[in-house]
Design brief:
By secondary structure, the protein is α+β, with helices and mostly antiparallel strands. Helix content is 33%, strand content 22%. The chain is built from seven helices and eight strands, in the order βββββααααββαβαα. A five-stranded antiparallel beta sheet has the order 3-2-1-4-5. Strands 7-6-8 form a three-stranded antiparallel beta sheet. The longest helix has 15 residues, at 118-132. It is elongated and about 60 Å long. It starts with a strand and ends with a helix.
């Protein structure tokens, strides 16, 4: 079985408890002496076997191997990856069985992480996630706060919810650029500073 490590915490001695997202579920596993194993790290894609699924205790990870990517040795890219991965544990809290969308989304992102600006990949992945969950707001509609039409500049709240910059006391982007981004889910028409603006919003939470 393959999965991304979404979260880790220490257990007794040098054992670890890991939250792993696979293509079919998100589950918590126990790993004896997990703190000793460099494979079991936040954000890593691992191949593993499971034992002890009798319900009396947490199932245990065994036979671990790391399915690595070349960009793992780039500290800047790895930091952005970790920050992105950390968003999924609270977002998927209390869910066990899950559609393959989330695993596939992370796998696609990881495969191109070294070829593109990671912040652009995060923004494009997030708008895909919002669409999948039915949470994309129509950027042509009114401000979420005052409910009046938005012309010219548009600010975005968490979850890319549109608002007037003066209503949010926030910086903004040209409305037409946001509308285009929402439609084609690509950041190709955005400058790097505009991508930074979107990225900072994603980092507030999925």
């Amino acid at each position: 079985m393959k999965g991304f490590v979404l979260g880790l915490r220490k257990a007794k001695n040098e054992d670890s408890i890991a939250l792993v997202l696979s293509s079919k579920d998100i589950r918590t596993y126990y790993r004896f002496f997990g703190a000793r194993h460099s494979i079991l790290q936040l954000g890593n894609l691992i191949d593993f076997e499971v034992e002890g699924e009798d319900g009396r205790f947490l199932p245990r990870l065994r036979g671990l191997s790391h399915l690595g990517f070349s960009w793992l040795f780039d500290k800047n890219r790895l930091l952005i990856w970790h920050n992105f991965i950390k968003l999924f544990e609270p977002h998927l809290k209390d869910i066990q069985e899950i559609d393959s969308f989330y695993f596939d989304l992370l796998l696609r992102a990881a495969k191109k992480w070294d070829r593109q600006n990671p912040k652009r990949i995060v923004c494009e992945s997030y708008i895909e996630l919002l669409e999948y969950e039915g949470r994309v707001h129509n950027a042509d509609k009114s401000c979420h706060i005052c409910e009046n039409p938005i012309d010219g500049q548009m600010a975005l709240m968490q979850a890319f919810i549109p608002a007037h910059p003066e209503c949010l006391y926030s910086s903004a982007l040209p409305k037409e650029k946001i509308v285009t981004f929402f439609q084609n889910k690509k950041t190709i028409d955005l400058e790097d500073y505009e991508v930074d603006y979107l990225f900072d919003i994603v980092m507030k939470g999925l």
